[in-house]
Amino acid sequence: MNISIIIPVKNEENCIGDLLDSLSEQSVKPDEIIMVDGGSVDNTVRIINHYKANGMPIHLIQLSEALPGKGRNIGIEAARNDIIAMTDGGMIVDRRWLECLVAPFERDSAIEVVYGVCDCYAKTLFEKCFVIVYVAANKKSTSPHTYFPTLQSFALKKYIWEKAGRMPEHLRATEDLIFLNAIEKLRVKSNIAYDAIAHWRPRSSLRETFILAKKYAECDALSSFHILRHIRKWFIYLSGLCFFCMGFIYPGWFAVLLLGFTANTLLVCSKNWDNFINLLRSSPIRVFITISLVITALDIGGMIGFARGVFKKFTIFFTALEDKA
Predict the structure, then answer these.
(1) 3-class state of residue 7 by DSSP
(2) Which domains does the chain carry?
(3) pLDDT digits (tens, 9 = 90+) for 154-189
(4) What global pTM score does this model have?
């Protein structure tokens, strides 16, 4: 079976070598690896060309500027094969990743989409806390790995990409979720390959966490995605601010606010409860504080990003009205 792997990249010099090393060791070799560079200003292109010169079947497409959606669209369009596998520049894939990802297509010719799984290689305490907060544990399988639909470990038949309307090219984030939702609406025949594992490195600081949340929330607003979730978050925090102010009049409200914050932290961690308890045993106070800070950074970053996105959307709307007038 001939397979094309599509990878959008930009400024990945610190991790692209690890990904290419893992792809070079695959038990099933891809026919081609199409890498679309969206305007790197570091050594990403030089590193890719080094692997290409050493025999890897890489087709490098260089663009002056491209967000991930555009990079994937151009890569898929250029692919010679019907089976398209996808991952990202910051990933490392298991040796049998591609073999397991395409196996369902070989077993059943009617399969049109295969979802792989993602795991993470968290090293520091902060990264482990980030994973507990950010990654939802899979409750539908006995697999120890986390499953959630993502293009970081994914394969499809090329015509499904066209049928789903391709990927949004104007968004810096969430374009993958929009595309996957479009595929789900097609009611395609799909399969989950729990042994097709791609590993990602979580955010390693509060600053990176804040920027991640702000970026995704802004794109959510621009694409009208997860709107109720963001409105609910704003409502919760504004309510918390009211309780805080009321605490100066009735100190008991401070206790209510603290209780609510603790309950919310435990609720967030409940989706990854076993890992949370194991990590908590190592340093209870430090872990709980770090997790609380991660939650706060994600929430505040998300609220600011959503507000920015709403403002931009209204600006675009009123600009269009003025142009028509």
Answers:
(1) strand
(2) 3-200 (3.90.550.10), 206-324 (no CATH)
(3) 999 999 999 999 999 988 788 888 899 999 999 999
(4) 0.81
